[in-house]
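for the record, two folds in this file. i put them one after another cuz i was lazy. first one right below, seq on top, structure tokens after. the second one comes after a little note so u can tell where it starts
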Amino acid sequence: MEERTKVVLYARVSTSAQDYTRQITELRKYAKKQNYEIVKEFSEKISGGKKIEERAAIKELLDFVKSNKVDKVAIYEASRLSRRQLDFLSIIEQLTELGVSLYILQNGLETLLPNRTINPIANLVLGIMSQFNSLEKNLIRARMSSGYEHHRASGGSVGRKKGYRKSEDDYRLNYAREIALLQKNNSLKDVRAITGTSINTLRKLKANYC
């Protein structure tokens, strides 16, 4: 009986208020349709502009494919992997050296051909896409900075309104994953790396719910 292709799924969103469920669901559908065997799933809530060393899930994924039989890593779209051009290309290079193909569902692109050689068209397109992802990251940062400056110049203030305070239910809902990780005695630094949530917020969550 022919051995099934072994695939690892990876999903990422930028903030704790976002949800990666849709990404995982679509990737599972793809794997089922192709009759692939899902051997592991990784997900995290952290900015794509963070370095690889700051992203716990992507580090765990790379370690996993090094020590386990994996044929493909599937992601929903290119920017989920990283918005840092050098990191984006570095991850692809590491996977390629291990003989692991990266598949991007939204574009139908795959870095390796069926014979495990490099797919030149996909790598050319991904190289261009990585530049756009990096450019988009910088444009978002520039727009935010410009917006803050304009708001201040117009007499506005940046931050929460005076007297604003999240309800307990809001905290539990918005930081459910952080609370769960803290309750498992993970360090503040590790939880921050996984979720992207600030240390100060994590301290409050730990004090109130752990």
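(here's the note) second protein begins now
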Amino acid sequence: MRIVKRRTPEECEEFLRDGKEFRYDLYRVPFNGGKGGRPEPLRGAAHNGRSNFFPKYSPDGRWIIYCQASNYMLLQPDSELHILPSEGGEPRRLACNLGRMNSWHTWTPDGRWLVFASKADSPYTQLYLTRINDRGEASPAVWLDRMVGRDGAANIPEFVPLPDDGIVEIREQFIDDYSLTTANTTLST
């Protein structure tokens, strides 16, 4: 069992009250036969006065798509998806970005599509799909309206290569507080 200590507002004053900035930069670490090496800032996604986070390489290794916001990294209203060549370079804002909180993205195994979460049309994250062409340009986003219930969130999507009959049944567990409590009580006894 892992015990997580909750922080009090007093312990977080520098961020909550004083508005301390907290930004992330992306770095590249050489593989070097598994021995690693000296981390180097990823040109275009480091030291740019923004917070850069959640990088994902395209399956062919040509591109990196990552999120960028003014501060922090989780649930930021101004978070947008950016793309840059994997060797570094000039990042570009993807045209698929919507009005609010674009994040939690993943590539299809063939590297032609990207699914991502956004709060553009709901207080909950919803999934959107975009096509990425050979030049690293995104098509307009298409809402995957059947991927989440009306009052639910969809986030951290992942494509899983399964055969057509790979999922026979989906059990709905933990769909509300009651089912979670019931399951925890059952597991404890």
